[in-house]
Each structure stands twice: as structure tokens, then as C-alpha cells.
Amino acid sequence: MSVRSFSDAARNCMNGSTARGVRYASSVAANKSGRPEHGEQIYVYNHLQTNQVVYSLTKSLKNNASLAQLPYNGKKTVPAALRKDHWSPLALITFPPGTSAAGLTAYQKLREYRKLHELSWDPSSPVFQDKDGKPLNRILRGRKLNDQKANSVADIAAVLESIREGNEKIGLKGIGEGKNVEVKWRDLNDAEWAEKWSEAVVHDVWEWRENNREPEKVRPYDRMIAKHAEEETQSAAAAAEEQKQQQQEQQQQPTEQKEPAVGEETVTQWQWETDGKTPEERKREKRIQHLALMERLKGTHQSYTPRGKWKHESAPAPAPTPTSAASEPAPPKPTKAERHAAHLALMASLKGTQQVYPNRGKNANRTPYEAPKKKKSAPAAAEESAAEVPVAATVPTPALSKKAERHARHVALMESLRGTQQVYPPGEKAERRRAKMES
User: Fold this and answer.
1) Tens of pLDDT, residues 338-392
2) Which residues have a Cβ under 8 Å from the Cβ of 292 and sit 6 or more positions away?
3) Which among 75, 124, 299, 305 would be 20 to 30 A from 133, CA to CA?
4) Mind giving me the DSSP string for 288-318?
């Protein structure tokens, strides 16, 4: 049997106590400095899509241990593997040093309560019914059961409510008087899911690092934001320095070279002193001139050309057109109703004939198309000329139909009422209906 020498035993000793590795030493692992014991910290993670909650005693999630906490609430409710990009930190519960046993019992109760929420639910609850009172289908019911974020926050508040004294009925150990439990939240608004919190609970914000291996490494986006902020600070400092130099140069210049700047208020004051009118009186005078010009142009074909600022004192009166007594008055132009009536009469006269409606405008001088005539033999031409009898070319002008006459009268009446305040007279049917209602 090999026996260790005194030097080997001395090498494995520290401060007079036997270190781990020596035979018959304590089986409890030595705690590393600055690291909490097992059970003093409980990490709570939340799924970003389904709001499922997972509790962990370590900072990093383990695949098998995390999936074992998720119950089967239907098809596709439990993922095949754990995706760390889908899980976000929700809270961190830190117990006082030396109270790891209380932390382990709290961890056990949190998992038991979460299991009760997911397995002992009431089907008649309105949460699991639609608007008509019918039970939800399999997919919607699974989503409701997976959403345990609010229940988990309420469970944390219930477990920590009696954490100082403990609760022997449920096997919860206490931490003792004068000690507090710290709960750090990724978002402080999540703490409002619970109705009340114990006095032994202290809330804080959880500063989470996305890169734990290289915490001091800056992301490209953060680097760009910091660069922009630094550039803005430098530009602001340069502008302030330039403004300071300009002020110093102005102070060094002699006072004789400085001339007072003439502003709009000074110009207005000078104009006021020259004509003796205030700006309000001058504005009112321009308004009166504008109204007078508009009244003068009323009823004429002239338009109000000047716009914006006034560039004239008064508008010139329209020059009268020279009229000679010897010149004959021009015939009045036909109204729209007369032109329409003539059009209807012409259309009615051409109805049933082979004549074409006369061209107007650009097509007025266009010659009508004539198909080429076929040459006939001499005996056939002689027979046709003998059979022809001269007839007076008179085109009958048939009378207008009743509908055309009513339409012509309607158009003429509308044209005569244009520009007046008279009302279009009601027809015979309207008169009969009105008389019937009055009777």
C-alpha cells in the first residue's frame, strides 16, 4: 500500500484544514468566492410567442430539464427542442446568503403551482368559451393553457408573501426576520400582474447581457449609435467655439464702423411719420379700395387682374365702345333654346328621307361623297330620260311631335329663367298631386 509523504499532505492543506481531494475529507464542494449557493437564485424565463414559463436554478437553460416542465396541452404545444432565441428572461429571484434551503422550497412550490394551473382548469370558465358560450376548439384551448405569464407572476407573489416565517403546511421554509428577497424584472411593468406584494420583497431592474462570453464587446448597432452621438457632440462643440470667436471679433471692432440695422419696424415707423397714418388705417384704406374696385367691375366682362399686393390706386374705368347712328344694329344671336328647337325641327324634317344632316364647323365645306355611277347602254339611257318627269323639288316640313314640342318649351323656359330669382313652375301632375293633398 502506497503511503503519501508528509510533503504531499502539506501541499493539499490550506490554512490548517484539509482541502478537497484528501481522503476522508468533507464531501461538500467548496463554494467559489463571489458565487451564490445552489438555490439562492431562481431564474424565470418566458416564451416570446406562447408566453410559456420555465423556472431554472442556473443562468443557462438546459434542453431536457426545460422541456420536462412543459405539459402536453394538445398537438404542437410542446416544441421538439429548446430554441434559446424564443425564450426571454422574465425575472430573477435572489434570496439572502445562507438561505438556499428556502430558495429550493420556493422553487418547488412555484413548479407545483404552475402544474396546477395547466392541469386543473375549469372547462366551464368563460376564459375557455367563445362569445356564444361554446367550448373553444383544440388550438385555441391550447393557446390559453400555454399562456401562464400572469399566473406565474401571481404565484411568485403568493410564495414570497410568507417567506420570512415560512409555511409548514406546504413545506415552505422561511428566511428569518430582517431579511428581504430581491426580485429583478426585465420589465418592471410585469410586476403589476400580481395584486399585492409582501413587505419582504424588493423590486429592481434586471440588466441582462446578450453576450455573456464577451460582455464588453459592443454590437455593430450600438457602435454606430455611439459614433453618431460622438459626432453630434463634436459638431455642437465646434459650433459653440465658432460662435464664441465671432462674438470676440465683434467686440474687438471699433464702435464707429458699426451701423444700426434697419428693420421692418423702423421702416414702418418712418412711413407712419411721413403720411401721418397708422398701419391699421393704411390697411383699412386698402380694403376699401379693393371693395370699390370689385363693385365697379360687377356686371362687366372684365376680370380682377391685380392679385396679392396692391399696385394701383384705382382701376381705370372701362372705355365706351364708339357707336355710330348710321351703323345698323347687329342681329341678336339666337339663344340656346332657339338653336335647340331649330335642331329638332331639322332632325324631324330629315326623318324618313335619304338626306344627310348638314356638316358644321370644320366639315362645313366638305363635299359629300358620291359613289361612281356605272355607264349604261344607249337604249337604256334613252328609256330612262323619256320616263323622267320634272317634279318641283320641295322638301316637306313635317310638324314636330308632342315630345319634341314639350322639350323645346322646357329648354326655352329654362333659358328665360337663367339669372333671375324665379322658380321653375310645376307641371300638371304636380299641380294635381298638390290639389289632391290639400283637399
Assistant:
1) 888 888 888 887 777 767 666 666 666 666 666 666 666 777 777 776 666 555 5
2) 314
3) 75
4) HHHHHHHHHTTTSS------SS---SSPPPP
Report the percent of the chain where pLDDT is more than 70: 68
CB within 8 Å of 104: residues ≥ 6 apart? 38, 39
pLDDT, residue 412, reads 84
- Flag whether 327 is in a domain: no
Helix axes 149-161, 100-119, angle to 10 degrees: 140
**pLDDT range class, residue 15, cuts 50, 70, 90:** very low
Cα Rg of the chain, angstroms: 52
CA–CA separation, 46 and 150 (whole Å):
11
Please report the DSSP string for 114-177 in residue order: HHHHHHS--TTSGGGB-TTSPBP-HHHHHHHHH--HHHHHHHHHHHHHTTTT-BTTTTBPP--T
Does a structural domain hold residue 27?
no
Query: Could you read off the pLDDT of 245-273 as tens digits, one per residue?
Result: 888 888 887 655 555 555 555 555 555 55
What is the rounded average pLDDT of the residues 386-413?
A: 70
Q: Examine residue 373 and state whether it is found in any structural domain, yes or no.
A: no
Separation between Cα atoms, residue 94 and residue 160, nearest integer Å: 11
Strand pairing category for 17-18 and 41-47: unpaired
Distance CA 241, CA 77 (A): 63
pLDDT-derived band at 321, boundaries 50, 70, 90: low
**First-last CA distance in the chain:** 138
How far, in Å, CA of 47 to CA of 149, rounded?
A: 9
More confident residue, 402 or 273: 402
178 in Cβ contact with 98 (< 8 Å): no
**What's residue 267's pLDDT?**
57
In a domain, 375, yes or no: no
Whole-number Å distance between alpha carbons of 150 and 53: 10
pLDDT of residue 300 exceeding 70: no
Q: What is the pLDDT of residue 433?
A: 81
Dihedral class, residue 262 (left if φ above 0, else alpha if ψ from -120 to 50, else beta): beta
* Residues β-bridged to residue 18: 13
Tell me the residue range of the domain where 94 lies.
Answer: 41-205
Cell of 432: 294635381
Alpha-carbon distance 221 to 164, whole Å? 45
Residues 6+ apart with CB under 8 A from 373: none
Question: Which candidate, 246, 236, 79, 217, places its Cα nearest to that of 146?
Answer: 79
Structurally, the chain folds into a number of domains equal to: 1
